């Protein structure tokens, strides 16, 4: 039975992924703030370290798959929390759990990024420098100076950085025998999207962001792509980002890929 750790397993895409993988015979170790197997706050260094230790304990040091879904939307304050969960939370779990994954059976990992990852390219991402330096203090300063734009900057900047972090790890993870990819969803019907729609600062903008397939994805549709990427049929897919966005990236950037 494959053992799979999932962050953000209590809700939305993480909960749908848990259900899909359990139906396929996985034993799932869920991580979330509450309502899962391991309670941990991935916005803090202590919470990330506790989550890694608890997963290693629960799987006995050998993990087959890892899915990182934990994340927060642009409305969360302070905006530094968005970077803390979406970037630092994900990267800490990737690096901390690689040794356990290396011992797994045909191991693989998927990080849930976003179409927003391409809205702020790395060479224009003001958070790129302090993220590379791991300087959370400098990130806070940049976000405070951004004022009303801080939530969007933190969300797009952290999603861009987490996709870059996956791509930068492709050689080390390939050498370790562990496949690693990202998925980039558009709007998915989850509590995270609803909180954005309900926020007076972001609601209209999100409503205006209509994909060529003009509806929101269901979490189960994202879960099925994640399950595919984890499994043997995706055995040569490594270091890539798969958009699952109803065509919105192609519509917005037809010549860039
Ligand atoms: N819903 C969308 O439209 C959409 C679009 C693109 C990308 N995404 C990404 O998909 C991922 C899953 O989001 P979702 O839409 O399923 O949202 P969701 O709110 O349903 O689920 C996110 C989960 O992450 C957990 N979480 C948040 N902060 C945490 C913390 N500090 N420590 C531990 N767990 C924490 C939450 O408790 C929740 O269970 C996120 O990374 C999000 O950025 C979502």
UniProtKB/TrEMBL annotation:
Pfam families (UniProt xref): adh_short, adh_short_C2
Xref: SUPFAM superfamilies: NAD(P)-binding Rossmann-fold domains
An example Gene Ontology molecular-function term: oxidoreductase activity
Highest taxon of source: Bacteria
Keywords, in A-Z order: Oxidoreductase
UniProt KW Phosphoprotein keyword: no
PANTHER family according to UniProt: 17-BETA-HYDROXYSTEROID DEHYDROGENASE 14-RELATED, SHORT-CHAIN DEHYDROGENASE/REDUCTASE
Protein name: Oxidoreductase
């Amino acid at each position: 039975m494959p053992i799979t750790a999932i962050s953000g397993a209590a809700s939305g895409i993480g909960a749908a992924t848990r259900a899909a993988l359990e139906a396929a015979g996985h034993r799932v170790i869920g991580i979330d703030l509450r309502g899962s197997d391991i309670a941990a706050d991935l916005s803090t260094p202590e919470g990330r370290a506790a989550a890694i230790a608890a997963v290693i304990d629960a799987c006995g040091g050998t993990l087959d798959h890892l899915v990182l879904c934990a994340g927060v939307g642009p409305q969360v304050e302070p905006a530094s929390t968005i970077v803390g969960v979406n970037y630092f939370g994900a990267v800490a779990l990737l690096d901390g759990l690689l040794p356990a994954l290396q011992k797994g059976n045909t191991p693989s990992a998927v990080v849930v990024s976003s179409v927003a990852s391409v809205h702020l390219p790395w060479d224009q991402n003001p958070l790129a420098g302090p993220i590379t330096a791991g300087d959370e203090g400098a990130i806070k300063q940049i976000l405070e100076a951004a004022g009303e734009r801080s939530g969007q900057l933190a969300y797009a900047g952290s999603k861009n950085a987490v996709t870059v972090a996956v791509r930068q790890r492709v050689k080390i993870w390939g050498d370790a025998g562990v496949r690693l990819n990202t998925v980039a969803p558009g709007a998915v019907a989850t509590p995270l999207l609803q909180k954005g729609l309900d926020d007076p600062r972001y609601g209209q903008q999100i409503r205006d962001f209509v994909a060529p397939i003009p509806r929101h994805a269901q979490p189960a549709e994202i879960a099925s792509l994640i399950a595919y990427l984890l499994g043997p049929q995706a055995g040569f897919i490594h270091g890539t980002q798969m958009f699952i966005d109803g065509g919105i990236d192609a519509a917005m950037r037809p010549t860039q890929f």
